[in-house]
Known about the structure:
It is built from 10 helices and 10 strands.
Amino acid sequence: MNNTASPGFDIHIIGERINPGFKSTKALFDTQDIAGIQALAVKQAEAGAAWLNVNIGARAMTDTEWMATVIRAIQDVTSVPLSFDFPSKKVQEICLRSWDAAKSGGQLPIVNSITEHRWDLMELYGPFQFKVILMASERVEEVNGAPVAKGNKTAQQIYETARRCALRLMREHAMPADDIFIDMSVSALIADTEQLNRGTLDAIGLIGRDPDLAGVHMMGGLSNVGQQLPPKAADGSDLKHQLESAFLTLAVPLGFDTVLGTPWRGYAPLPEDSYVLKAYRNFLEQSGSNALRAVRKFYKA
């Protein structure tokens, strides 16, 4: 991997902005503003993005030609490889067929994302070469003889799913560890009464210490962590940004190395005396109503 996007951490950024979840980007899609989409791609690339995530929303299922047009237009203005963000095998195949490896200097795109119950996407591997984002938040269990998808909450569940799926990719598909990104699914603090943040961090540690998983990447989108919280922390700092940096301050030393995020945000480790980092450490030790009280400490002096 290259293109370290933040001088403060040894991390890489998958640029998230080509997504209709952002109002300004949705407007570009609604008006089919190709030049605007290209400018957004270039802005992220110039800010240091290692990949550009591409998601055009539900339209990808009904207008595959528009999907192909967006991919080709982005590749016309930047050599940064792309990450195709769709759960559908049909859409991913269109993306991969539209992709021109030569325009990215032979770098591989990313298929975002597969899960244990959405393994059919790997049927595309072989005809096409790509990296994958593997969701560790869901596992498959047999219930009355039928496979059922279940959410993971504990560190052990997350770790066991990540290990099982990553080793399957390596052994059944001969995929290099460097091509595997395990999405650790960072949860919002405001509703986390079950120590989900603590479970994610503990799972990162378990994966990072497993010699069989050496070389795989751990990643996540951090935008959820400060969801619905006030903009300012009790010390006057940008609460959401400080929370994202607090998570990274603890996660990066454990092996977390990739963020799905906005490249120009600029992430850096927080000092030990940081108000938000200390409040976050306290929050990680709480559960139930105590966790809710701990959340208030972030923005109430």
